[in-house]
Specification:
Order of helices and strands of chain A: HHHHHHEEEEEEEEHEEHHHHHHHHHHHH
Helix content of chain B: 55-70%
Radius of gyration of chain A: 23 Å
Number of strands of chain B: 0
Distance between the termini of chain B: 12 Å
Strand order of the largest sheet of chain A: 1-4-5-8
Shape of chain B: globular
Radius of gyration of chain B: 13 Å
Strand content of chain A: 5-15%
Helix content of chain A: 40-55%
CATH topology of chain B: Non-ribosomal Peptide Synthetase Peptidyl Carrier Protein, Chain A
Number of strands of chain A: 10
Largest interface: A-B, 27 and 24 residues
Oligomer: heterodimer
Structural class of chain A: alpha+beta
CATH superfamily of chain B: ACP-like
Largest sheet of chain A: 4 strands, mixed
CATH class of chain B: Mainly Alpha
Structural class of chain B: mainly alpha
Distance between the termini of chain A: 27 Å
Order of helices and strands of chain B: HHHH
């Protein structure tokens, strides 16, 4: 074990512990197995034993920075823990974990030391906090929030309601997003960290749980405050910094949440493989049918694609925070859609079985329903599109083909290099003058062509590089009317193209660095170029609005890998984690 | 010393003029239509777009600025004044 492997090794022990605590998911007697998970979903309840197990594991500590006594150090490790939960039960993942994370990042980004210590203590003692941004009337249009906080002498008076908030009733503290100035502008909102116990009970009302199609166990509630006075030291950061803090906190959660939701596709693939390997139709094993194989292989390819972009984006928040506002929106824009499309296509392999709520594969339909919020929850696809679009003209003019591009840190793509503890105060809203992923795409494609060892791959990557010029020309001159809320469909289409290029770069460069490692240090499957060829072909089709076709060569290779991992109980993402059962 | 103050005032005026023209172009109006004493959000410049505009100002002036500059100085008057103060002077210091 060399120092270079430390990044990966550090994560293994906590994940093994978590897997061991959750136990074999296929064991019907396991109170944290899929049967129990499904039963809880049928009742519309959280999996009680799951919550107890997670408390024993000390899940809250995963969301607290190391400097405050927790284990949050490396965003990719944070994602790994969440993903393990989402592989088992997304309701546990969201309702017992991620919802506190979503609230806490605001405090890590802008809170005072006292506020941070308070939240750390809560999470480390297995208590919950809830993130109260959302109002049904305004969706992601934060600046039109109605909930208000009015400053009086020695206090702030809170009025208004928040809806569809996970754990709002059972949380000990709330992070509330409030309007604090009636004038229109970007300094008219503030975040407040409020102790629920400090609110006068007669001035607080809770609404009944919002019945949802999925995440049925998660207590999604509403709260209304009527003239509640709170102390001025509830304000997070300074008054008026609400939007700034939100946009910073979102950079972490827009990467972390999709990374965690990926666990759903991992289990979906596993369930589908199990089903297909046992089922016989028309005298043949379903898994022997080319159509089935292609669907499975494509879903696997998309899972790897997602992991590449999530991993690189998470590392870039550490290493190149200047690109954070764009890359995080890119992850939340692309990954949920890929996951939902892949999961939907897998359901066609299960056929009628996918529609059943009971039985061996009954949990599949729950996972499919639980997956949907990935695309609209917390930050919608549209709002991410609107974050990226106005950044395209400056990126096009200043970053994509600049001759003096900053060297991209190699650690961005080398997952075995340990990262320094994540610095919440390094998160920036600045429009970058550099675009590391586009720079690295161009540089690596060039180096690959020069090597002359992978001609198919070199041709694929050149195709992406050749798209940069036209994209630049299209984006550099976009007028303000074409990058705001009233932008045309055509202008919006540039976002999709750009994000596809980011994804291509992430995949290519992760492979490039893995491939360069000595054989004993790398992962043989990842060092081989075939997974990358398939992924890049699929991305190329996205770019050209074409229908992807999976060649026999790729299908056979990827299917063998899928079966190997399935037989050995390994996750299907980049890190190949050992799973229970 | 008098020249230095005059220079700063010239710079501030020139900056404000540049900003008026720039913003007029962004929002599709004539520069004369753009008041320098009202919040630019009144002209439809949203908060996210304001972040990217700061980048344009950085390019124009060759400076590195706080990303939220236009959030904190939301009128052309305020923006011009703070930018003039950020420019390297050609005086004693």
């Amino acid at each position: 074990m060399t120092a270079a492997n430390k990044g990966g090794e550090v994560m293994d022990a906590p994940l093994r512990k978590l897997e061991a605590l959750l136990g074999n998911p296929w064991d019907v007697a396991n109170p944290c197995g899929f049967q129990a998970v499904l039963d809880a979903d049928e009742r519309g309840e959280m999996l009680a034993e799951g919550e107890r197990v997670l408390d024993r594991f000390g899940l809250g500590g995963a969301f607290v920075p190391v400097s405050l006594g927790g284990r949050l150090h490396d965003l990719t490790h944070l994602i790994d823990v969440g993903r393990a939960l989402f592989r088992r039960d997304p309701c546990l993942g969201l309702g017992h974990g991620a919802s506190s994370l979503i609230a806490a990042v605001n405090v890590w980004a802008s809170g005072s030391k006292a506020q941070q210590v308070k939240v750390a203590d809560l999470l480390l003692s297995n208590r919950k906090i809830a993130c109260a941004y959302h109002e049904l009337d305004h969706g992601n249009d934060l600046m039109r929030a109605d909930f208000e906080a009015v400053q009086r002498i020695g206090e702030w008076v809170l009025n208004g309601g928040k809806q569809v908030i996970a754990n709002v009733e059972r949380a000990d503290a709330l992070v509330l997003f409030a309007r604090t100035d009636p004038t229109a502008g970007s300094r008219s909102h503030s975040l407040l960290l409020v102790d629920k116990a400090a609110l006068p009970a007669e001035r607080v009302s809770h609404s009944p749980r919002f019945a949802s199609m999925g995440m049925r166990g998660v207590p999604l509630g509403g709260i209304r405050l009527h003239d509640c006075a709170v102390s001025p030291d509830c304000v997070l950061g300074s008054a008026g910094s609400g939007l700034e803090t939100a946009l910073k906190a979102f950079q972490v959660t827009r990467v972390a949440l999709p990374g965690m939701f990926m666990g759903i596709l991992d289990t979906g693939l596993r369930l589908t493989l199990r089903h297909a390997s046992q089922r016989v139709l028309y005298g043949r094993g379903v898994l022997d049918l080319p159509l089935t194989q292609a669907l499975l292989v494509n879903a696997f390819a998309d899972l790897l694609l997602c992991d590449c972009l999530v991993t690189v984006a998470a590392r870039s928040l550490h290493l190149t925070p200047g690109a954070g506002i764009v890359y995080s929106a890119a992850v939340k824009y692309l990954i949920p859609k890929l996951l939902i499309d892949a999961m939907t296509s897998l359901s066609s392999v299960l056929g009628a079985q996918f529609y059943m709520r009971r039985g061996t594969h009954g949990v599949f339909q729950k996972l499919l329903r639980d997956l949907r919020p990935a695309s609209f929850g917390h930050a919608s696809r549209a709002s991410c599109q609107m974050t990226i679009l106005p950044q395209l003209p400056p990126l096009a003019r200043r970053a994509w083909t600049r001759p003096d591009a900053l060297p991209v840190p190699a650690a961005l793509f080398d997952v075995d290099v340990a990262l320094a503890p994540f610095a919440f105060d390094a998160i920036t809203l600045g429009a970058g003058k550099h675009d590391p992923l586009i720079s690295a795409l161009i540089a690596t494609s060039s180096a690959l062509s020069a090597q002359r060892t992978h001609s198919e791959l070199a041709a694929l990557t050149k195709g992406f590089v050749d798209s940069v010029g036209p994209l630049q020309q299209n984006c550099a001159g976009l007028p303000p009317s074409e990058v705001g809320v009233m932008a045309s469909v055509q202008s919006h289409s540039h976002v999709g193209r750009y994000v596809t290029l980011l994804a291509a770069s992430a995949c290519l460069n992760l492979w490039w660095h893995e491939h360069a490692k000595p054989a004993q240090h790398g992962d043989a499957f990842l060092r081989d170029s075939r997974w990358l060829e398939l992924v890049l072909q699929r991305l190329q089709c996205r770019l050209n609005n074409a229908t992807p076709a999976t060649s026999t060569k790729h299908c056979t290779h990827m299917l063998a890998e899928l079966r190997h991992r399935h037989e050995h109980g390994q996750s299907f993402d980049l890190r190949r984690r050992d799973l229970s059962g | 010393m008098t020249n230095q103050i005059a220079d700063t005032q010239d710079t501030e005026a020139a900056l404000k003029d540049w900003l008026r023209h720039r913003i007029a172009g962004y929002v599709g109006r004539t520069p004369e239509d753009i008041r320098t004493d009202v919040s630019l959000s009144n002209y439809g410049l949203d908060s996210v777009y304001a972040l990217t505009l700061v980048g344009d100002i950085e390019d124009h002036l060759g400076l590195t600025l706080e990303a939220t500059l236009m959030w904190d100085h939301s009128t052309i008057d305020a923006l011009g004044k703070t930018l003039a103060g950020s420019l390297p002077g050609d005086g004693c210091h």
